[in-house]
Amino acid sequence: xxxxxxxxxxxxxxxxxxxxxxxxxxxxxxxxxxxxxxxxxxxxxxxxxxxxxxxxxxxxxxxxxxxxxxxxxxxxxxxxxxxxxxxxxxxxxxxxxxxxxxxxxxxxxxxxxxxxxxxxxxxxxxxx
Length: 128
Hints:
Layout: H1 2-6, H2 12-38, H3 40-43, H4 47-77, H5 84-117, H6 119-127
Helix pairs in contact: 2-4, 2-5, 4-5
């Protein structure tokens, strides 16, 4: 998406950037999930507590995202056709991964809790 917006082709450096992005992007999700797992109320599925924890973790996630994007800005504005696709792929991907980490990961965490909580009901219904 970011490559298209900035008008760069999906070439070799963009592919290298996408591969590097996999390792960088997972860190945001790890921070959010570790914060959720560290709190007893969040592990039980208390929505208000989960929101508070994600808001507290968002400071760390947004700070690392901003520094990553800022670190790739010199490559982006340097021009040329070699480095900018790498910078756009990583900076754009980290931005998208941050949104996923702050919204999608807590939602999936809550869904897993709800599924585990209702597991005995499912076992009874399959026994009939």
